[in-house]
Amino acid sequence: MVSKIISGGQTGVDRAGLDAGLEVGIPIGGSCPRGCLAEDGVVPACYPLTELTHGGYPARTEQNVVDSKGTLVLNVGRLSGGTRATVDFAKKHGKPYLVVQLDQRPNVADAAAWIAEHGISTLNVAGPREKQAPRHLRRSPCLPAPALSIR
């Protein structure tokens, strides 16, 4: 059962994950890059993230993978950029991860089963920023409550 959702606070999937946690009452958090940087300026204060004192986006991405029990990657198309780096960091640190393709009718039950199978309590949610996948992020709920295996 997911007891905390973390992400880096970037626009798009990161914030969708944090918003899902807020919506269902799961604590949220995570690490953000120095300066609380995001595509739209700075990460909004409504997301209680820890600002890293070193590094930028890659350091943030790796820290969130390390701090989680597993990473749910919500993606559209080929993995690239920071989304690809997230998967690489999960492999590097031996952390479970699941890539869900939002443009291929994702199955909520599959995500819930993966969370249960790996006993994921702290879930890192990652994926493309808003500019890279806006149509898919607006059209479908990225993290419906059933996928979070809530109480």
From TrEMBL:
Pfam families: cpYpsA. Residues 129-151 are annotated as: Disordered. It comes from the Bacteria. InterPro entries: cpYpsA. This is Molybdenum cofactor carrier.
